[in-house]
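Example 4.3 (complexes with small molecules)
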Amino acid sequence: MDKPRVFVTRRIQDVGIRLLEGAVDYSIWDSVDPPPREVLLERAKDVDGMLTMLSDRIDEEFLSNAPGIKVVSNYAVGFDNIDVPAATRHGVCVTNTPDVLTNATADVAFTLLLAAARRVLEANALLRSGEWTTWHPNLLLGRDIDGATLGIVGLGKIGQAVAKRALGFGMKVLYTGPNANPELEQRLGVERRTLDDLLVESDFVSLHCPLTKETRRLIGERELRMMKPTSILINASRGPVVDQSALVRALHEKWIWGAGLDVFDVEPVPLDDPILNAPNLTTLPHVGSATVRAREGMARKSAENLVAALQGRRPQHLVNPEVWENRKR
Ligand code: GLV
Ligand code: GLV
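Answer. The structure with glyoxylic acid bound is encoded below.
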């Protein structure tokens, strides 16, 4: 029997490639840049499965061009690049890679929090500009972490990992999200609030929700104006959870004190985007999961999910289990 055919949209870590070897007949888009849309649509026509990145858009057009596809395995925990209802209609399994990147991503959120609070990028630029002339009592004063309140929007795995870090730094932790979790509140020592109350009470607000219809532009002008003028917004989830143009105004007009972003509306963020000229902004180029161990875990899990689905075994991290249940009937 012919092996299932698979297209991998970027070179992933060898641990993932080794799992594909022997199990499937694969080809790789061997470039740091994503495959152009035409290539993705062309390859869709004759594959049984695809291993995709968060920069590959998997939508109705793609799916209706892919008559033989059984699985789209995303090398990411987020899957907002995939139209999951459309995949479900087409009977296509969608999988993701949770757990392996939880701590790495929480570390980046906390890095942004500390760096924004202590003005690390600005301080580095000052030093290198030659304008560091003396130690003085008012040079680069930042915000305190110990005793400050952190509001976490979305207390999933990454949100919980951020809460642990914050508690270790002496912060009080609030959270908001669709589900109350009294057991978790007890165990971690965190308190639930409505989003509005969390915004009003927090010194730092960190976003850890998935991007969905409900969370798109969750933080807009109204919400930013509710935050303290001394507060800092951190986003290591997805750019569109924040109304980026409202954030630009919030920073210029000092509705809030600062922001730390790992993610943007459009990525890579264009260099002439007004967000990059906003004051008190600490930025990173979407590197939340960029550690050797997290990326190896993502390569392994994405390959395992893909191979399982193509060999008729239920993938460990299936986003749309309905597809699997219907197939069994
Ligand atoms: C990264 O942003 C991911 O969703 O894995
Ligand atoms: C600062 O460097 C201090 O010693 O207080």
